[in-house]
Amino acid sequence: MSAAADSVTRVTSRFDRNATAMDVVRGIDLSGKTALVTGGASGIGHATACALAAAGADLIVADLDGDKADAAIAAFLAGNPRAKMRFARLDLGSLKSVRLFAGDFTAQVPSLDILVNNAGIMACPQGETADGHELQFGINFLGHYLLSRLLEPVLVKAGRARVVTVASIGHRRSDIHYDDIDYKTRPYDRWEAYGQSKTACSLLAIALDQQWKAQGIRSNTLNPGGSPTGLHQFLTDEERRKQGWLSEEGKVPARWRSPEQCAATSAWLASSPELEGVGGRYFEECQEALPWREDEPMAGVKPYAIDPANARRLWDVAGTMTGL
C-alpha cells in the first residue's frame, strides 16, 4: 500500500519491475508543470523525459551533447507533436557551467516543479573535473549538488516541487571516503569511485529532503536497475563479461531491463499522486527498497546510503567544495 506523508510505513505501488515509464504516468496530467531532466538525451534519462513530457510537462533536457539531444528531442516530438521538450546545455563536470546554467534557468523559468538528477558516468579511467575533483564524484554528485542548491528558488516557487536523484545498486561498493574523496593520496579504484559517487547521490536526496521539506519540496532517490545503455561506454566486452553483464554469445543478463523499464521508478517518483508528501527514501522497481542483504546483492540499500547524519556531513563537505 501507499504510505502517508512521513509515515514509517514502507511505500509500495501496483507497478512491478516490468512497468515502463509510460505505464506509470498513464492517467497523470502534468500540464502546467515544468520539469528538468539531466542526462535526458539518451538512455534512462531520455525515457524519463519522454514519459514526463507525454504526461504534459514542459520538459527541459539538460545535457552536454547538443547534437544527440536535438536528434532525440526531434524524434520524440515527431510522434508527440503536442508535447513540449527542449534542450539546454549543461556540463556537470564544470561548476562554472553549472552556475551559468542555473543563472540562465532561474532568469527565464519562473518555477520548477520537477527536477530529475539523472546524468552520470560509470567506471571511467582516473581523471579530474575542471575544478580538480575525481570525475565520477564530480559529475555524478557534486555537479548535481550545486545545481539543486542553485535551483532552490524556482523549486520553492512551484509550491510542492519534487526532486528525484538517481543512485545505483553500485552504492554498495563504497561509503564516502571523507579523508580522500578525490583520490589525491590513495590508489584509484574506478568501481569504488563509482560506488562512492552513487552513495553520494543517495545521500544528496536524503539531505535535500532534510533541508527543504519545510518549504514543500520533497526529495527521493532510487536504483534504476541494469540496462544496456551508454553508461557502459568505458567498459570493454571482456570487462562486461567479467561483471556478468555480457555472455559469451553477446547477450545481456535476463534480469536486465529496457531503458524505458528502468526509467519507471524515476517517472513514478516525479509524477505519481501516491508520492505526495513522501520524501527522504530510497526506491527500486517502484517500491521502497528493503535493506541490502549479502544473499541478494543486486537489490536493497545499505544503511550508510540513507543515514541522516551521513547526509548532513556530506552536505556540509559539498558546500565547502562548491563555495556555498
Describe the structure in your own words:
The chain has 324 residues and is an alpha/beta fold. It has one domain (21-318): 3-Layer(aba) Sandwich (Rossmann fold). The chain has 11 helices and 8 strands. It has helices spanning 21-25, 43-54, 66-79, 95-108, 135-150, 152-158, 190-212, 237-242, 259-262, 264-271, 308-322, and strands spanning 34-38, 58-63, 84-89, 114-117, 162-166, 218-223, 282-284, 287-288. The chain has an 8-stranded mixed β-sheet, with helices on both faces. Helix 2 (43-54) links the parallel strand 1 (34-38) and strand 2 (58-63). Helix 2 (43-54) runs parallel beside helix 10, helix 5 (135-150) packs parallel to helix 7 (190-212) and helix 7 crosses helix 11. It is globular, with a radius of gyration of 18 Å. The N and C termini lie far apart (40 Å).
